[in-house]
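Sat 14:20. Reprocessing the chain from the morning session after the first attempt stalled halfway. Input below, unchanged.
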Amino acid sequence: MNRQTFALIEGYMLTSMKDAAHDKEHVYRVLNNAVRIAKSEPEVHWDVLLAAALLHDISRPEQIADPMVDHASHGADKAYAFLKENGFAEDFCSHVRACIRTHRFRKTERPATLEARILFDADKLDVAGAIGIARTLAYNGETGRPIYTRDENGVISDGDGDTADSFFREYKFKLEGICGHFLTEAGRALALERHAAAKAYYEALLQEVRDNTGRAALDALLDA
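Finished this time. Tokens:
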């Protein structure tokens, strides 16, 4: 891919990135992750991978406007249409579409090609460590989701098995076991390097909120 083609695709991406957790900097991190992972894969189709990485989140605005929209599926079709309109070959457009369609964590359809697997891992790598914690908290703030919830006894839940949205639930549902979902050896190795930071933060935050939300001292003061 030459610089002119890269700039064309990058420019289209830049018109679509609206929210803090999925902004252009996230795209650039995913792009860099993809390059790092792909360096260990001699058969990678670089043009497909770069285009898919640049365009993988272009339908985030549609999903924000309507949570029923799957940004992966919608974005795959949107990317395909853009590439076709700009004269890219059918095989190329279809391959990029397939990569984007299967990059999401909450999808039953598995990435089928090497480029799709690399994109999946590159995107997941951006939630595996400290940056993943920051992005999750930013997204929760944008969508009005709390840091934690309480169980029926009033105890702050660690998120395990919760049905109500919270940061702790997202950590237990997605971030805690993310390293087991990587599809490339290089991606998995990079994720394991980062994961300790996320685990330490979650444990420290849980301890802090549990230590600081009781009413014993307040009740003693009020009853004095």
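The CA atoms of residues 176 and 199 lie 7 Å apart.
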